[in-house]
Amino acid sequence: MSETPEALWAKLPLEVQHEVDGLVTEHRTASAVKTIRNSGVTPRPGIAEAQAVYQYRMSVLKPPPRF
Asked: What's the whole-number mean pLDDT along residues 39-59?
């Protein structure tokens, strides 16, 4: 991983950040990872990097558990 999840998050366009946060609160991991990878950030984040950003946002947002 070339950069921290926080640094990658900061590079994402604001509209992508909002979309990812919505997906995180809905526990839609695959959709959030896909959105991060397709955000237009270069170089394109790998799957592991996108998953790390997802986990970072989970730790920040602390959404209630899904039942």
From this structure: 97
CA distance 49 to 65: 23
Task: Please tell me the number of Cα atoms within 13 Å of 19 on its side-chain side.
Answer: 14
Distance CA 5, CA 65 (A): 22
Average pLDDT of the chain is 95
Confidence (pLDDT) at 66: 81
Locate 46 and state its tokens. 């790998």
Helix axes 29-37, 14-25, angle to 10 degrees: 170
- Residue ranges of domains in the chain: 5-61
